[in-house]
Amino acid sequence: MQSQLRETICADYVQLLPPNSLVAVRSSAVGEDSEDSSAAGQMATYLNVNGIASVLEHVLKCWASLYTYQAVQYRRQHGQPVMCGMAVVVQLMVPSGKSGVLFTADPITGNPKSILINATYGLGENVVSGQVTPDTVELEKKSDQSMCIKAVTLCSTAADSATKQTEGKAYGCLTYDEVMILANIGQEIESLFGSAVDIEWAEEGGRFYVLQARPVTTLCTETDDELLHELDTALATDKEWLTTCNIGEMMPGALTPLSQSVFAQAIEEALQNIHVSWGLLPSSATPTMKNLGVYSGCCFINLHTMSNTYENNVLISSKKVNELGLCGKVLDDLTWEMIKEHNGQASLWRRMNNGLKVIQYLWSGRHRLDELESLLLTFDLERKSSATEMYTTISESLSFYYYAWDTHMLFSAKSGMWSSTLVSVLCRNVDDLTTDMSSDMSLLLSACSGVVSADVPSALEVCYHTFTT
């Protein structure tokens, strides 16, 4: 420690504190306690320090605790500078008979109508560090600004912990009057901060001392479950069937938010356009997910919505053939009653009309493929130096990307119709694809020419050999 700093500490210690005083040596670091983060317990706090030599020693130890593993990792994880300043506070110890922590909002549920008081005999550091289980008093704020005690959990004085409902009397180490005094102190400090606060307090000789106050940082904290399901797609009912068949081959892992908003939305819009062209949706595509769903970051096909294309709405379609083509088996548990309850049953005339629209749709669109191929020759997604610029560039290219997927879906539908026809011929008397049937289909498809997807296995094999050699 520098000699000038040592001399200043010694002079202030003698001038400001009574002889033989017990003091607390504690941290006050930049960014330690704010609305966004709380580093409680990460830097060292030393209590009942006696004598100037001991104070100087513990000031150095307190400063050193700024660079313990947990303190450094916390700052890194919260985007704070690793190299930062820290003051060390030397406070006169309160020989507290009772002490604890007060929250002006429930730190677990975030309920702003609750006040929680943790109290125990002796020093409050035992409560903050978790060394003892304190009494807990919960108060409820009423609309007329009054407060009432809602519940008391006894731990510090009772042999067995217990929770008791109470209307006017508190139990444990605090009396009713002391509870109300603390609650009012909390209300006053909360009004000064303008937000919920976490207060450390101590009582000695009937007088309450506020040792520290900081914002409650857990009120807006999202749980792991909320983060996992933050971008989940809403379901229309609680009976919908979802599958990763087909879509799981394209995107086998979890989607990033960017992929979800670009890739999944493009497929969704293309599928909705198919339904509109077939007479199954009354208007143009909407941003709402109907055919796809994203759950825990993974993409699923909504079988209930896809079943809208079955023979209950399209005369030339078939539930059996569609399910064999998509899932490789007939889904007997997905009954016609469930499908009709979700999608309804069209009249014979409507089904015939939709069937004609399907045929018209499937025989159209050759010019779109030619147009897309010419557009691809000039398309270039220029890389940008920042994420914001790159995001803007992608957003400006979405119309082309959606057009490409819409065209792809048109020709996939054609391919799917012929595949379904082949499946229906092979499986006319059975409900599942056997190994022999799959082999026959593979043999027939391998004999086709001009099928881009048929080249994928051989292309992957070439890539494998290229990388391994």
User: What fraction, in percent, of the residue positions are helical?
Assistant: 40-55%
- Beta-sheet strand percentage? 15-25%
Structural class designation? alpha+beta
**How much is the average pLDDT?**
81
Based on CA inertia axes, which overall geometry fits?
elongated
* Measured distance between first and last alpha carbons: 62 Å
H/I helix tally: 17
The biggest beta sheet is recorded as: 7 strands, antiparallel
Order of helices and strands: HEEHHEEEHEEEHEEHEHHEEHHHHHHHHH
Instruction: Using the CA coordinates, give the radius of gyration.
Output: 35 Å
Low-confidence stretches: 158-170
What is the number of E strands? 13
Which strand order spans the largest sheet, edge to edge or round the barrel? 8-7-6-5-4-9-10
Structure description:
It is a single chain. 43% of the residues lie in helices and 17% in strands. By secondary structure, it is of the alpha+beta class. Strands 8-7-6-5-4-9-10 form a 7-stranded antiparallel β-sheet. A 3-stranded antiparallel β-sheet has the order 2-1-3, covered by helices on one side. Helix 8 (257-277) crosses helix 15.
